[in-house]
Amino acid sequence: MFIDTIKYDSILVITPHEDIIRENSEDIELAVKNNYNKTITDIILDCNHIQYINSFSLGTLVKIHQNLQENNCKLHFLNVAPSIKTLFKITHVLDYFSILNSIDEVKEKSK
């Protein structure tokens, strides 16, 4: 899977360019692992190119969130499609994840 990563000070933005399914969910996990360091306080998964996340991959995202939380880092989602928002609501993962309207929301908090 093609994944862009951009770092803004203490914020890492990860942008996958296709739906997140079982066959490529490990790619997201590796992108986080390979780009995370102790200076990063927030990771934003930009879902601009994602229309679908299957249940296996949702489990992977929860696992990523738990690992980041142990290091005082937060996982956020940006540009989330309505179908994925519905999935997040139904599965109650919005108790863990936050959905952003813009990257600026996190940038303002980190100042």
Question: Could you describe the 3D structure shown?
Answer:
The mean pLDDT is 93. The chain has one domain (3-101): 2-Layer Sandwich (Transcription Regulator spoIIAA), CATH 3.30.750. The protein has a five-stranded mixed beta sheet. Strand 1 and strand 2 form a beta hairpin. It has helices at 25-35, 55-70, 82-90, 104-109, and strands at residues 3-8, 11-16, 42-46, 74-78, 98-100. The termini are far apart. It has 111 residues and is of the alpha/beta class. It has four helices and five strands, in the order E-E-H-E-H-E-H-E-H. 38% of the residues lie in helices and 23% in strands. Helix 1 packs parallel to helix 2.
Annotation keywords:
single chain; 111 residues; globular; five-stranded mixed β-sheet; Transcription Regulator spoIIAA; 4 helices; alpha/beta
Succession of helices and strands: EEHEHEHEH
The number of helical segments is 4
Might you state the CATH topology name? Answer: Transcription Regulator spoIIAA
Structural class: alpha/beta
Helix and strand arrangement:
Elements: E1 3-8, E2 11-16, H1 25-35, E3 42-46, H2 55-70, E4 74-78, H3 82-90, E5 98-100, H4 104-109
Parallel strand pairs: 2-3, 3-4, 4-5
Antiparallel strand pairs: 1-2
